[in-house]
Design goal:
Glutaredoxin; FAD/NAD(P)-binding domain; 14 strands; alpha+beta; four-stranded mixed beta sheet; 36% helix; five-stranded antiparallel beta sheet; 3 domains
Amino acid sequence: MVRGTLVVGGGDGTVASVAGLLADVELEIPTGDDLPEGALRLNLTRGGFVGIFALGKGRHRLFGAVPSGFTASSNSAEVSHEAYAEVPSADIQRWLDDYFAVDARIRSTRWTALFRIHSRIADHFRSGSAFLVGDAAHIHSPAGGQGMNLAIGDAFNLGWKLAVVTTGQAHEQLLDSYEAERYPVAKTVLRGSDRGFALETASHPVARWVRANIATRLVGPLTRLSAVRSAIFALFSQIWIAYPPSPAVADARIRRPGPRPGERAPFGRFWVTHDQASVFDVCGGARHHLLLFEGPTPDPRSPSRRRILEGLLAQYAVDITIHDVPATEPTLHARYGARSPLVWLIRPDGHLAYSGAPEDLHRLRTYLDRIYIRQAAASDQKDGESDHT
């Protein structure tokens, strides 16, 4: 049985006494103060963070933490741990007036939800043939808005593995790597979002003073710096996620320049070949791809290397497409640490699975045998299934 573990405020087992509020409303905003469609405004207030997102045609989404006295004074029922509660328009207007610093009137309220912030993670993401993904596996505070990306990452990670296992292309043990890879990621995101939410909503007088007098003056200038913007993008887009200790990737202890197995495949473009398409354009779809780097200088042995690799890969039931990266693509060679001929195997979820010299066929074969099924074995497995039908 898969059970849930509460992880709040450093894992002390207590539920944070913080409520959040979402509301889709139509606003009447004076000219000059309105937000263009798709724009987002965030405020750090004495009660925590609040935000307003322009949906277009006068519609806006209000979101953020609500002060402790808000639910008590609201005419709505006190929000429980299990359910969402509706909030009257008058209370939404009061919240808007007191915390958003926007001179606006609510014309109509389309949808509201007052909810208690939870942070929980299941003890396991797999129990036999049952798997947990997304909110069924973990829930956390909305700080950073990382829940959707985290859930999509779970689903894609498990989805491609189920696909190759159920079609007889990979060993069933591959499914064990789902929890091994995604559980540490979920714990990291929960810990980070909880800390961020605690800083945003802390009621201590010092924390409130810092938010009102320091943070509000620093956020704007800092977020205009390209380095800070890149760091924020990397954090919230979750491209930092890596699986180096995973049983589904090659030994990452072999150190080479560039990325390591388990990391996300670095972005880069084919400037000479493939019409300047990116690596993800060329290696797209839910397939396996193998990048064959020629090395920094043209090598007459490159065609024979490819033929040998094609012969090896053809022995396996999984479909792996080879892409040549010639010496005329120095930028990609640098991104992938290819100072000499090198191969990189990219999984369907965009993470690197294996790296090695193209001549090291024994090591590549050993890795493939650990994860994937050879053609003859796959045929025998299908014949056995047919005999039982």
